[in-house]
Specification:
Blueprint lengths: L3 E4 L9 H9 L6 E6 L11 H10 L4 E6 L7 H6 L2 E7 L6 H10 L3 E6 L17 E5 L13 H15 L5 E5 L4 H10 L3 E4 L1 H4 L4 H9 L2
Parallel strand pairs: 1-8, 2-3, 3-4, 4-5, 5-6, 6-7, 7-8
This protein binds D-xylitol-5-phosphate and zinc ion.
């Protein structure tokens, strides 16, 4: 079974967003990954709801929304209204993660929890059966084009073990520094979904790169 691919729009040319999204529409990509940053949780600011409304109109792929913001629980309704299929909140940003996960699901979205590189997988022991997906950050969040952190491979293996041990149906998504080489290692370790920014949008043929990543 091939893995799912979620191209990260952060690496696209925002001057021609329509063309970039249409490229993804015409590809074998499964989802479109949307990175929202607030300049507080991460040292960068990307874009917010007005831009997401526009993306929602153009994208034929379900939106995989990654919120790199403090207190994402405050914005569940807005995220839903801006077209999210799945809402990723950071473990490090949620004081009441269990409640937030339930609220996301009640709102009609899939719920995912994201781990920064330093956050151990074992902290998910008591929430793993409630989430639809775990997003493992394989770079420190905030910027595209960074180097893949090798420890993420072992981390994915440990997460896979936890999922099997707890009889969870959570998917494993990995985000940051994914290309054909790192993607292969991470899929072999148990990843189900690959996020890819620069390796897709800076490729000479993004549609072809998506197909290659999907075959890993
Ligand atoms: C980083 C974002 C990523 C980023 C990935 O904070 O969460 O989704 O766009 O970009 P690449 O694939 O270029 O590392
Ligand atoms: Zn992301």
């Amino acid at each position: 079974m091939s893995c799912k691919i979620a191209p990260s729009l952060l690496a696209a040319n925002f001057g021609c967003l329509r063309e970039e999204i249409n490229r993804v529409n015409d590809s074998e990509a499964d989802w479109l990954h949307i990175d929202v940053m607030d300049g507080v949780f991460v040292p960068n600011i990307s874009f917010g709801f007005p831009v997401m409304e526009y993306i929602k109109e153009l994208s034929k792929k379900p939106l995989d929304v990654h919120l790199m913001i403090t207190d994402p629980a405050k914005f569940i309704n807005e995220v839903k209204d801006s077209g999210a299929y799945i809402m990723n909140v950071h473990y490090e940003a949620c004081l009441h993660l269990h409640r937030t996960i339930q609220q996301i699901k009640e709102c009609g979205m899939k719920a995912a929890v994201t781990l920064n590189p330093h956050t151990p997988v074992i902290l998910l022991e008591d929430i793993i059966r409630d989430v639809d997906m775990v997003l493992i950050m394989s770079v420190n969040p905030g910027f595209g084009g960074q180097k893949f952190i090798e420890n993420s491979i072992e981390k994915v293996s440990r997460l896979k073990e936890l999922i099997l041990r707890k009889n969870s149906s959570a998917l494993i998504e990995v985000d940051g520094g994914i290309n054909l080489e790192t993607g292969k290692k991470i899929v072999d370790a148990g990843a189900d979904v690959l996020v890819a920014g620069n390796s897709v949008f800076r490729a000479s043929d993004p549609v072809e790169m998506i197909s290659k990543l999907k075959m890993l």
